[in-house]
Write a structure and sequence with these properties.
The chain has 77 residues and is mostly beta strands. It is built from no helices and three strands. Strand 1 and strand 2 form a beta hairpin. It binds zinc ion.
Length: 77
Amino acid sequence: MRQSLASKTQVQNFDGKQCITDVMKTYMCVVCGFVYDEEQGLPDQNIAPGTRWEDIPDTWTCPDCGASKEEFELIEI
Ligand SMILES: [Zn+2]
């Protein structure tokens, strides 16, 4: 009986940090200053936390002043 040497397989897990591409953005209404945070969403408006700005329907308007999505600007943090 031969004893087989079990070869050790080393699985290298490259845990690539994807946080750079996965950053949540924040948008602000230029009319009234209302801020939409993708991370928080707008539960009051049936917009779940984590909803991307581009996933919000174009019919959506600013809850404070009624401005359209076009009136919002990306805030660089
Ligand atoms: Zn507004």
